[in-house]
Design brief:
It is built from two helices and eight strands. It has an eight-stranded mixed β-sheet with strand order 2-3-4-1-5-8-7-6, with helices on one face. Pfam families: 3-dmu-9_3-mt. It comes from Kurthia populi. This is VOC family protein. InterPro entries: Glyas_Bleomycin-R_OHBP_Dase (IPR029068), PhnB-like (IPR028973).
Length: 135
């Protein structure tokens, strides 16, 4: 499954509400950066604690995902949408991750996180950002 991931500059909660109302969806979720487990290697800035780390709205049986950026790395046209690969096939994910990262940049190596047993992200050679998440 490929899922669009929309990135905002602190307006993700507002956008989730807007799209939920527009599509008459009651299936929504919001997790803020402040709700995430603390990691001393990746401290969350105070001004980001209430920003959306991960959220979604279900539309026509599929999820549109949402997140905010930190204020020091604002989203702009070109980096405000990523594509999320959601799969239960770890081998497929590893191979696709390797293939897409050729001539690209690994933003986060595939690894276990509190959100997923296998998660990672890359920017491919065409500047398209891909997130991989095992479900």
């Amino acid at each position: 499954m490929i899922t669009p991931y929309l990135i905002f500059n602190g307006e993700a909660t507002e956008a989730i509400t807007f799209y939920a109302n527009a599509f008459q969806s009651n299936d929504t979720s919001i997790m803020t950066f402040g709700e995430a487990p603390e990691n001393p290697e990746h401290l969350i800035p105070m001004d980001a604690k209430n920003r959306v780390m991960h959220g979604y709205v279900s539309v026509a049986g599929e999820k549109i995902m949402f997140s905010d950026t930190f204020s020091d790395a604002p989203a702009s046209i070109g980096n405000n949408i990523t594509l999320a690969i959601i799969s239960n096939d770890k081998e497929f994910m590893r191979q696709a991750f390797t293939n897409l990262s050729k001539e690209g940049d690994i933003l986060m190596d595939l690894q276990e996180t509190f959100l997923s047993p296998l998660y990672g992200s890359i920017r491919d050679k065409y500047d398209i950002e891909w997130q991989f998440s095992y479900e």
